[in-house]
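ok, trying the design again with the full structure, not the truncated one.
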């Protein structure tokens, strides 16, 4: 079912209305400072439109994992300051999550103002999807805009709960611009993909991505496997993986996927190995059956890089999740960097290229290709669930477009 979005609302209908927006302002903090403002940046289009149209915007977000308790280190106050700078518009911070102290200042807001309430996860009812908490937020206004794609795979009080409460009282719950964009690209790449359709899956753990691999396998022309999860497939093939990371519990699953995938499942043919995770290690490129002893497989090898990038450059639709190696260390970053450039080249040539996953997004940033990709998802877990064909509770609860 297609959901109603902010683009479906005439902006003249927003003036003077109190709109509750759930954004994902869950930014990384280092020593109390915001170390990466990408999520703040991504929330701007929705807020700019609402404030510009004269709505009274009441903004909700979580930050970190305070586990239902007030934790001053996870206050959204510094986020409000950074948001105001990015927005070029004042953002008042209200140091309360809900209840009378939060609702009183909301009652008399001027048109076009933006206020941010305190971290939703300071209240235990948030992650428990408490309906009274959701209702108290719904009482603040008459339109709910959910723009928090990064938490859409969880049914929390400020996401799915608030949407249900708003609709129960006769209001609407719609998707914000970021949410709509994420859904559009992640669903479009799967709906009727232009072929060849190539998926690239890497990263540390096969167990966290089994759902995506088995869901994508029948839909894609090629599914390229890299990163530590390739090691588990090597072991499933009976190869020696030396001292590499392997998930013993997933060997049977890997065998099934190899069987199910046939020619579509493409594993690395060679690897970069070293005896330790360091740039100073003794680093060698070996064929995959030559790995032994104290070798740790830490990247895909040169022959694999060539095969993978050829397939990627020939693709018309690409989904990428997970680095090809330990890209954080230069000696083991080449596979990931080459893949990033190949995906960007394909996109330059008109292919649809979608990237998901926090570490992969950091790798693409490091390779300097982010701007050239069709879409870089802001939601790791949520994008994986969507690609695996799951429905997201934060989206399901929204008003249908009719
Ligand atoms: P994403 O966040 O993009 O979904 P993951 O979290 O699944 O990606 O995996 C990223 C991590 O996997 C990185 O920290 C990277 O160092 C690690 N990794 C990739 N390849 C290997 C490998 N061969 N051995 C150990 N760790 C690896
Ligand atoms: Mg990660």
């Amino acid at each position: 079912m297609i959901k109603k979005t902010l683009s479906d609302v005439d902006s003249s209908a927003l003036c003077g209305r109190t709109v509750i927006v759930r954004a994902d302002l869950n930014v990384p903090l280092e020593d109390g400072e915001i170390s990466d403002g990408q999520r703040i940046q991504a929330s701007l289009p929705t807020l700019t439109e609402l404030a510009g149209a004269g709505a009274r915007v009441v903004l909700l977000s979580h930050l970190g994992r305070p586990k239902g308790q007030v934790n001053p280190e996870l206050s959204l106050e510094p986020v409000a300051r950074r948001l105001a700078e990015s927005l070029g518009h004042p953002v008042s911070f209200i140091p309360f999550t809900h209840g009378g102290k939060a609702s009183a200042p909301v009652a008399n807001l001027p048109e076009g103002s933006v206020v941010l309430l305190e971290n939703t996860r300071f209240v235990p009812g948030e992650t428990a999807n408490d309906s009274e908490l959701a209702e108290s937020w719904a009482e603040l206004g008459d339109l709910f805009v959910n723009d928090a794609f990064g938490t859409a795979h969880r049914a929390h009080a400020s996401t799915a709960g608030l949407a249900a409460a708003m609709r129960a009282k006769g209001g609407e719950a719609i998707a914000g611009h970021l949410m709509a964009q994420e859904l559009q690209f992640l669903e479009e790449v799967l709906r009727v993909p232009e072929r060849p359709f190539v998926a690239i899956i890497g990263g540390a753990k096969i167990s966290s991505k089994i759902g995506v691999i088995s869901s994508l396998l029948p839909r894609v022309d090629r599914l390229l496997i890299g990163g530590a999860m390739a090691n588990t497939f090597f072991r499933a093939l009976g190869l020696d993986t030396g001292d590499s990371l392997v998930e013993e519990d997933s060997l049977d699953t890997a065998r099934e996927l190899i069987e199910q995938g046939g020619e579509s499942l493409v594993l690395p043919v060679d690897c970069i190995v070293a005896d330790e995770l360091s740039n100073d290690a003794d680093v060698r490129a070996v064929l995959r059956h030559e790995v032994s002893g104290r070798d740790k497989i830490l990247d895909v090898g040169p022959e694999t890089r060539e095969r993978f990038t050829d397939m990627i450059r020939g693709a018309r639709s690409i989904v990428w999740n997970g680095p090809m190696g330990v890209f954080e260390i230069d000696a083991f970053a080449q596979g990931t960097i080459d893949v990033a450039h190949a995906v960007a080249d394909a996109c330059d040539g008109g292919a649809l290229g979608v990237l998901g996953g926090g570490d992969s997004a950091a790798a693409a940033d490091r390779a300097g290709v982010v701007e050239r990709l069709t879409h870089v998802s802001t939601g790791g877990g949520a994008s994986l669930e969507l690609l695996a064909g799951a429905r997201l509770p934060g989206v399901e609860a929204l008003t249908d477009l009719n």
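Keeping the full-length input from now on. The first strand starts at residue 18 and ends at 22.
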